[in-house]
């Protein structure tokens, strides 16, 4: 039967299927029709019989048609599976290209460095320190001592430990004349 011709009956068969509500009852209607209106279930008993099928022929015919459409369904399933795998593979390749392009375009960003100069000289000629502060992380703070200065360890601190900036040194007090006022 021509596949296009089979589609001519789709509306009638869909109407029956919708009316009965499930495939099992649809098959009962179909085989009931074959039983009532055809010689599908009649057996040829004598060579002179003009209607019916030889024993087992009707059953073999149903099984053959079933196997034909079952094979087509398996091929369709395999084709859909392959298309889905191909679609997934193409999507993964596209994502990999995007990631590799983004990685290739990415320029290395230098680590930001902030330099703070502290001049803490007092009347006694204290130390001068230049401290380079780097962002938090595994990198340590780098200190450079100005020439002629000496490094002092605060009381209670461990020598070589990183220093945390404290309060700025107090300014010397200035005595103001009585008629001068501060703003």
In a few lines, what is going on in this structure?
The protein has 183 residues and is mostly helical. It is built from 4 helices and 3 strands; from the N terminus they run ααααβββ. The chain is 43% helix and 9% strand.
Provide an overview of this structure:
With 183 residues, this protein is mainly alpha-helical. It has a domain at 55-103. 43% of the residues lie in helices and 9% in strands. It contains four helices and three strands; from the N terminus they run H-H-H-H-E-E-E. It has helices at 3-6, 10-20, 23-37, 57-105; strands spanning 114-119, 128-133, 142-145. The chain starts with a helix and ends in a 38-residue tail after the last strand. Residues 9-67 form the NudC N-terminal domain. InterPro entries: NudC_N_dom. This is NudC N-terminal domain-containing protein.
- Secondary-structure element string: HHHHEEE
Instruction: Indicate the overall shape.
Output: rod-shaped
* Overall SS class: mainly alpha
Q: How large, in whole angstroms, is the Cα Rg?
A: 48 Å
Unreliable parts: 139-146
How much helicity do the residues have? 40-55%
Q: Tally the helices: what do you get?
A: 4
N- to C-terminal distance: 108 Å
């Amino acid at each position: 039967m021509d596949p296009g011709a089979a589609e001519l009956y789709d509306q009638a068969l869909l109407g029956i299927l919708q009316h009965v509500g499930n495939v099992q009852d649809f098959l009962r209607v179909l085989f009931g029709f074959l039983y009532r209106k055809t010689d599908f279930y009649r057996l040829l008993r004598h060579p002179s019989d003009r209607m019916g099928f030889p024993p087992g022929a009707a059953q073999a015919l149903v099984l053959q048609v079933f196997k034909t459409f079952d094979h087509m369904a398996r091929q369709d399933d395999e084709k859909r599976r392959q298309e889905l795998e191909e679609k997934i593979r193409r999507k993964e390749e596209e994502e990999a290209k995007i990631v590799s392009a983004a990685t290739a375009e990415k320029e290395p960003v230098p680590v930001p460095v902030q330099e703070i100069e502290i001049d803490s000289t007092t009347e006694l000629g204290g130390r001068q320190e230049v401290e380079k502060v780097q962002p938090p992380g595994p990198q340590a703070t780098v200190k450079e001592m100005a020439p002629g200065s000496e490094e002092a360890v605060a009381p209670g601190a461990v020598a070589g430990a990183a220093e945390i900036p404290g309060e700025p040194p107090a300014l010397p007090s200035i005595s103001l004349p009585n008629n001068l006022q501060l703003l």
